[in-house]
Task: structure prediction
Amino acid sequence: ETGVTQTPRHLVMGMTNKKSLKCEQHLGHNAMYWYKQSAKKPLELMFVYSLEERVENNSVPSRFSPECPNSSHLFLHLHTLQPEDSALYLCASSLTDRGNEKLFFGSGTQLSVL
Amino acid sequence: AQSVTQPDIHITVSEGASLELRCNYSYGATPYLFWYVQSPGQGLQLLLKYFSGDTLVQGIKGFEAEFKRSQSSFNLRKPSVHWSDAAEYFCAVASGGSYIPTFGRGTSLIVHP
Result:
């Protein structure tokens, strides 16, 4: 148990659906991250929020839309996804967004796009 | 830009044997270096990290890693592997230019009884 909770654990959606992934931490961390993990590829950083402000947006397609309403919650809104978006989506948090901070990861949401 | 290479996609060892997982990074100055482990169906968990000082760092679960600046490497080692060590291992680097860690593609460890 890392203190970072992601829901749902599994999600199957069609290309025309709209869904949201949720991440929650009560560790007192000020930075939160979304990563995409595809088979045999490096983890891809998608978004970083620090103190609820987006500080990194790694050329992610607009069909992925993040939201950080407060320092404890992070959402990833999904719409009109493509089959190649099927992957494990990991949320992480850290005390700050400095590089020497340990990342605490959730268990991920396994997304399948049909 | 910083980058991380984990040259081995899969490593197979027998239980009780020693283990070394390779990691090479690309960055001009001394980076922050990490090893994370991911068990099936789980997120990543930090094993150990190196920032400065002693180049041999100890981590959890009996793992250690050695920073070698001349080789730009940060290899992970364990003297005796247990079946529960079977997992995916990720090396990561963060630098002064970009504080966000960059991860390697991972090495899958298979442990035979």
